[in-house]
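Below is how a single chain appears once it has passed through the pipeline. First comes the sequence as given, then the structure the pipeline wrote out for it. We keep one example in the README because the format questions we get most often are answered faster by looking than by reading.
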Amino acid sequence: MKNKSVQTEIDACFLYSKLAEHETDTNLANVFRQMSEIEKSHAIAFAKKLNLSTENIIQPSWRAKTINTIGKVFGYDYVLGVMMDTEKGISSAIIQSKKKNNVEITGTETNHVKILRSILEKETNVTGSQLSKFEKKHRSVGGNAIRAAVLGGNDGLVSNFSLVMGVAGATAGQDGVLLSGLAGLLAGALSMSLGEWVSVKSSQELYENQMQIEMDELETNPEGEQKELALIYMAKGIPEDQAHEMAAEIIKDKDKAHEILVREELGINTDELHGSAIEAAIYSFILFAIGAVLPVLPFMFMKGMNAVYISVGLSALGLFIIGAAITLFTGKNVWYSGFRQMLFGLLAAAITFGIGKLIGVSIA
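Resulting structure:
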């Protein structure tokens, strides 16, 4: 049986190799291949220290295979996003293993994204546009999108399951449960959808306002903005004279100067402003509804306690699957995470069922 730290490195090696296979840009594909080799060397080193066999060591786990399948279906940008999101876990595993084996911690273990960045910068064939492409890829999609899908379904399932059980407890699963469940589904999904729309839209409007102020400053006080550009370059370690020369050259192109000031001074990534608030709202609605419909389904075809039992069974299965899916990001044990999620969801539903039962008896 493989050590967890070894398996983590094996999975990273496997996924980076898949990224390399499916990357159309040959220079970036080379970077991913180098990362795969780095992860493979980590795995072999850990295995040797732990006296584990290094034969056939590159055997990915179900988690890595599942993430690869997601990449095949939704595109490998998603895989890169997941890799960036899980690098903290990989780094933590490396540090723990080194501490356990009294190996010196050098500091390079803390963030594999820095290693990626270092390889990119050392690759003479990698251009600035390719570097930007990589940064855009790993920031824009991937782990966050998949995590949002899982958590959106979880919100819908847990909230509506609890609501349905509360009404079922009060009515013994008779009339009113289906109506309440559908109302809860629509109300919750609309609330989540509106919240997502407001969140995305307000962020976009805030950034756009800040960008407009920066443009106004460029137009009314270009000398001051030129000094700011020079200071930015000096802060990056560029000699003062050279920094002023660069700033003077850049300020001649107002759009380019604005782009640099927005990125460096305001910390705004303009690519992130292109996201659609409507699209985010629709996705949020659908994901919440998918989870929320599970506890309602049985009441569409039957009523009474039989419907309650089937609803509990379907919801418990859904909760377990969601808990298992979360391990794609956490790396925890599937059975532990699945049963823990199921236990908490059933506990919440049991409490609302009990309260509903008390209210039903009181009304009767």
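The chain has three domains: 4-140, 144-204+277-363, 205-272.

See the next section for the split statistics.
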